[in-house]
Amino acid sequence: xxxxxxxxxxxxxxxxxxxxxxxxxxxxxxxxxxxxxxxxxxxxxxxxxxxxxxxxxxxxxxxxxxxxxxxxxxxxxxxxxxxxxxxxxxxxxxxxxxxxxxxxxxxxxxxxxxxxxxxxxxxxxxxxxxxxxxxxxxxxxxxxxxxxxxxxxxxxxxxxxxxxxxxxxxxxxxxxxxxxxxxxxxxxxxxxxxxxxxxxxxxxxxxxxxxxxxxxxxxxxxxxxxxxxxxxxxxxxxxxx
Length: 241
Fold this sequence. Notes:
The longest helix is centred in the C-terminal third of the chain and has 35 residues, at 151-185. It contains nine helices and no strands. It is mainly alpha-helical. The model is unreliable at 196-202 (pLDDT under 50).
């Protein structure tokens, strides 16, 4: 857990972090407002989150790349969070063919779910490691060798213990944060589930909470990106698949 907390600390203390976090909070707020059930807002909301997904992919890829770049240099010499510019879009576009191929691979692998229990377990174990395709791409923003489905087996072999333990700790941190929010909101009546069940009305305060949760998901995504790159850097070798 110390590694996660240290990464989280750097995410908030690196140069320019306050401005960057403010930008992400504003984006979360815009997404929250667009996601309200007003007529005509659904299409705009879908478009907004599609653009955000594209941008976040590129942004997190730069975070991963920064982890590779800071190796051997003084800690803190390179900021974890990149600047807000058009580079994340360019990184996504460069990786677009690779993304399409791995979406197809993911759909094919998900067919295993038709096998009761075993198929589900297979998907839960294998699918998460596709994230390391993005990590490998982010190292030098090159796609050579990453179209081979067999590389997934190598990711699992090399990163199994480290990745599972990392994701477990990140999951626990997420639960702690949600529990903390609930502990604050429920006593204050912000989350009055009984009232919502009786009246069927969703209070406006719930929209604020959803914005906060969305912002937190952005931050945890940054931490996860840095952590996966760290795992890759420390455990990768040039052996065959």
